[in-house]
Specification:
Keywords: Elongation factor, Protein biosynthesis. The protein has 139 residues and is mostly helical. Helix content is 67%, strand content 0%.
């Protein structure tokens, strides 16, 4: 569950006309902080970002699901469902207690290195390199 302050900040940014990805940034930042504080871990920086984006979608940020080139079908379907819940097009299902505990337990066993400055920097560089080659291919 995201902090109320993060949700309020995102809604304010959307009202100001900022892009959904900007509004979702706060949720990703919050997730990185959770990992750094030791609340839970993550297998990679990508996973930490994905968790933050999922929380943003479910909180009402109109962030489009990734395209076919960006993510596998399962991830796209999950993102689509998260978006529908956030936009009140689908009722949120009460999460199974066993499944929630299992997920949290798995995250707690993961390392904290995914939220380090070096890991996040490497992730940002890789993403930028992918964008650069993709834009070259379109020309």
């Amino acid at each position: 569950m995201p902090d109320k302050a993060t949700v309020d900040r995102a809604k304010k940014e959307l009202r100001e006309g900022k892009s959904p990805s900007t509004a979702a940034g706060g949720f990703v930042r919050e997730e990185v902080e959770h990992i750094r504080e030791g609340e839970h871990g993550a297998r990679s920086s990508k996973q930490a970002i994905a968790i933050g984006l999922s929380k943003a979608r479910r909180a009402g940020v109109p962030l489009k699901p990734p395209t076919k080139e960006q993510a596998p079908a399962r991830t796209r379907r999950a993102a689509k469902q998260d978006l529908e819940v956030g936009q009140q097009e689908r009722k949120p299902r009460a999460p199974s207690k066993k499944r929630s505990q299992a997920t949290l337990g798995a995250l707690k066993r993961e390392g904290r290195q995914a939220a380090s400055k070096q890991a996040l920097s490497a992730q940002a560089k890789t993403a930028a390199r992918k964008r650069k080659t993709a834009s070259r291919a379109r020309k």
